[in-house]
Amino acid sequence: MNPKKKSFSYAKYGYLFSIPFIIVFLIFTFYPTIYTAVLGFTDSQGLGNINFNFLENPLDNFRVVLANQSFLNALWNTILIWVLNFIPQLGLALLLTAWFTSRRSKLRGVGLFKVVFYMPNIITAASVAILFSALFGHPIGPINSLLQMLGHDPYNFLNNPWASRLILIFIQFWMWYGYTMIILVAGALGISPDLYEAAEIDGATGVQSFFRITLPNLKMVMLFVLVTSLIGGLNVFDVPRLFNWGGPNAATTTVAVFIFNWAFTNRYMYGLAAAASMVLFVIVAVISAGIFFLLRDQDAARERKEQKRLRKLHKTNQNREVQKP
């Protein structure tokens, strides 16, 4: 008889390698999130002030936040800035994806183009915000110097609410369209070439192939891009904070900047800031869940539902067979 070979499992090493991430996540993400949620139900004020009490009415902070006009304006600014930068961002990313993955146009230097378009995403947000603040400085700044060369008077872009919003929207668009493009290109390269070859044989044009093959197969990738952009867009802080400090007249104050001001700018209303953070968390979670539900793969969902029904039916039949005398 041959001796039995001892089987060796590498699974334990997978758990071992995941321990550092779990520790870091628990300390720097999970604990702060839970602690913030708890502070939302207290009267906590001041840095290092650990003597706080739970409110008699636990939802008072949340009522104050939702009734605060400044918070509602910040929420509107956040959504507006995200929507107006994401739509052109996705459009340009799709256009570049079609260009880079086209089988007909033999584009040279694709790698170089990808690096150039992705470059703004590598630059730190703080550097970009300060750079654009200097570019549009008044009365002295590169943009105003160009206007004077063209015979126009200097314009105070940073003192105009809509001009500041539009610049901030452009910054967000410019920083993130390269990232979106890379994700979409990666998804497009995963589509079977046989589909495109069959379309070419049938006489389909490049535009028809893109809309009939590429876009439908990128649905889940675009869902990922949409949700991650939503999460990042509604939590944007550093660019509006450093570009124009949330001004003028709070025109570029996002929810994250609003929370920072309540918590750390001579107010130290930790309880209210924590409540505002949890309101933002719930908004992001609800919208993300709604997007997942509306844009889910319905065919796959129906297939899973049918498989679940068949398993349940099979189990019921087995129970009936066992109960027979």
Comma- or semicolon-separated keywords:
single chain, 325 residues, mainly alpha, MetI-like fold, 14 helices, 72% helix
Average pLDDT, all residues: 87
Q: Classify the fold: give the CATH topology of the domain at 69-264 and 279-294.
A: MetI-like fold
User: Can you tell me the overall shape?
Assistant: flat
What share of the residues does DSSP label as strand, in percent?
under 5%
Number of E strands = 0
Which stretches of 5+ consecutive residues score pLDDT under 50?
none
Task: Quickly name the level 1 CATH class of the domain at 69-264 and 279-294.
Answer: Mainly Alpha
Helix-strand pattern? HHHHHHHHHHHHHH
Total DSSP helices:
14
Helix/strand class: mainly alpha
CATH-scheme architecture of the domain at 69-264 and 279-294: Orthogonal Bundle
Question: What's the gyration radius in Å?
Answer: 27 Å
| Major sheet attributes | none
Q: Helix fraction?
A: over 70%
Distance linking N and C termini: 44 Å
Instruction: Output the CATH homologous superfamily of the domain at 69-264 and 279-294.
Output: MetI-like
Provide structural commentary.
The structure is a single chain. The chain is mostly helical and 325 residues long. It has a domain at 69-264 and 279-294: MetI-like fold, CATH 1.10.3720.10. Helix content is 72%, strand content 0%. It has helices at 11-39, 60-67, 69-100, 110-122, 125-135, 142-149, 161-189, 193-201, 206-217, 219-234, 238-244, 255-264, 270-294, 298-323. The longest helix has 32 residues, at 69-100. The radius of gyration is 27 Å and the shape is flat.
